[in-house]
Write a structure and sequence with these properties.
Layout: E1 4-5, H1 7-19, E2 27-34, E3 40-47, E4 55-59, E5 62-66, H2 68-74, E6 78-84, E7 87-93, E8 99-100, E9 106-108
Parallel strand pairs: 1-6, 2-5
Antiparallel strand pairs: 2-3, 3-9, 4-5, 6-7, 8-9
Length: 109
């Protein structure tokens, strides 16, 4: 099972790339790092460097890259973009997370 992006996330990533005038070789990197209030925290950034063990995916015209270790925790995860009132943000819908923190930026597996 791979990573996926909701339609709202796809539109937001495309809009961010356009607004920041990023070149075509820039991709979305999804990952996890140790830390956060639940043990692991999600990471999401634009990047241009691909490592030898990175997994590359093409999702609705967006190149997504995930390192091998993070992929173990993120397989089956959907990245969503949620607009609430005047603010919005990306959220990870991760079926592998046993628990998450209240802010939604960290989890335990």
């Amino acid at each position: 099972m791979a990573l996926s992006l909701s339609e709202a996330a796809v539109q937001q990533v495309k809009e961010l790339k356009r607004a920041q005038n990023l070149p075509d070789n820039v991709f979305l990197r999804m990952g996890v790092k140790g830390g956060g209030c639940s043990g692991m925290s999600y990471s999401l950034e634009f990047d241009t460097e691909i490592g030898p063990h990175d997994r590359e995916l093409e999702i609705d015209g967006i190149k997504v890259v995930c390192d091998k270790k993070s992929y173990l925790y993120l397989t089956g995860t959907m990245l969503d973009y949620v607009q609430q009132g005047l603010t919005g943000g990306f959220t990870f819908v991760n079926p592998n997370a046993k628990s998450t923190c209240g802010c939604g930026t960290s989890f335990s597996a």
